[in-house]
């Protein structure tokens, strides 16, 4: 079988690339051994956010008494909740399948690996040929010594999202994005949740300012989640009282009914047979690419979690579009000319804890570290009429801008709907807009987005709803 392009992996990057190349008139094969949509759609982003949304209702019911409303205590039908989550996932998977079919993409249900330049071997024993190959195999969970995912009582994030049970005591090993999001969900479901993180702070490796981290830590602790920082999980044993986890750097062991290991993910590059074409991943498994996302092997590209950078679905999708249009142009199709380095796109991040945390661009600390003369503006949720009306006064907006030009360099939002609110800041950072451009744009009232406008006005020293000293 011969194609213009073969894509290995049908996650957000792979299926997006395949659809776009189909739109541009290329004959494309998409090779996937599991379900369309990859980890994000089936076992990550979507089921997590579905459960985040569902369990938020529990919290709202419990908080309603403060507004003079009372309800019976929520009853959790775990089987139905799991089924509803799966229905959401299935609907989206069906949508991806329909789009691939509509754009004449051939989906091959098999595991794919490189068999040489322009050749992909399939687990079915067949080989397909193409002028270009896109590697989009995504990532897999990281195991830590002494904590095999095969051990009884230990969960991966996939296990946690299956909603097999609500453990009375849940220990989450890893205080990163995945660990904290699942900790928040199970805390709402009624588990007594502890989070064990080997680094001195939660969300290590993410460019967030200390004020943001402190605000989130305070909120998680107030919700009843126990944070044990600077302590690494060393070993575990099953006793009559549960699973006892011993740690390094922390004197007291932790006993739980289930242990969720969520210490991060690594590129799923080991099974791609990269050596066949002379590609050498780095020690972490990442594949080096150039500004067009081409690897060191001509005609072979890599996108998403296989490349160094934030492991985010929307980054993979954006790279999928870029690589699709680049390859189409290389193969003589009329495709938009991509601008800039595909490795350096502005990528916002959203973390679904309670409160939500979202960011884009540079933090205040990073701007200072890079020697940038920056100005910072903030505005509190507690001063927003809409936030108070929602009973969501916790959090703040922050903007960081270049002092002389006023160009927005970054933003952070901690609070209700931060995941939605970061989009305006992402546009501003990506397009080089200034504080004045945001401050002088009339925002509807009363709304949460007013907070970004107020933060920009605060940075300019002219906000009417903040005190300037």
SSE arrangement:
Layout: E1 2-8, H1 12-23, E2 28-32, H2 38-43, H3 45-63, H4 78-102, E3 106-109, E4 112-116, E5 119-122, E6 127-135, E7 139-141, E8 154-155, H5 157-161, E9 169-173, H6 177-189, E10 192-197, H7 210-222, E11 226-229, E12 232-239, E13 242-248, E14 254-256, E15 258-261, E16 265-267, E17 300-302, H8 313-330, E18 349-351, E19 357-361, H9 364-369, E20 374-380, H10 385-389, E21 396-402, E22 408-414, H11 418-430, H12 435-439, H13 450-460
Parallel strand pairs: 1-2, 1-6, 2-3, 6-17, 8-15, 9-10, 9-15, 10-11
Antiparallel strand pairs: 4-5, 5-6, 7-16, 12-13, 13-14, 18-19, 19-22, 20-21, 21-22
Helix pairs in contact: 1-8, 3-4, 3-6
Question: Could you please describe the fold and organization of this structure?
Answer:
Strand 10 (192-197), helix 7 (210-222) and strand 11 form a beta-alpha-beta unit. The protein has helices at residues 12-23, 38-43, 45-63, 78-102, 157-161, 177-189, 210-222, 313-330, 364-369, 385-389, 418-430, 435-439, 450-460, and strands spanning 2-8, 28-32, 106-109, 112-116, 119-122, 127-135, 139-141, 154-155, 169-173, 192-197, 226-229, 232-239, 242-248, 254-256, 258-261, 265-267, 300-302, 349-351, 357-361, 374-380, 396-402, 408-414. It has 469 residues and is α/β, with parallel strands linked by helices. The protein is built from 13 helices and 22 strands. Helix 1 packs parallel to helix 8, helix 3 (45-63) packs across helix 4 and helix 3 (45-63) packs across helix 6 (177-189). It starts with a strand and ends in a 9-residue tail after the last helix.
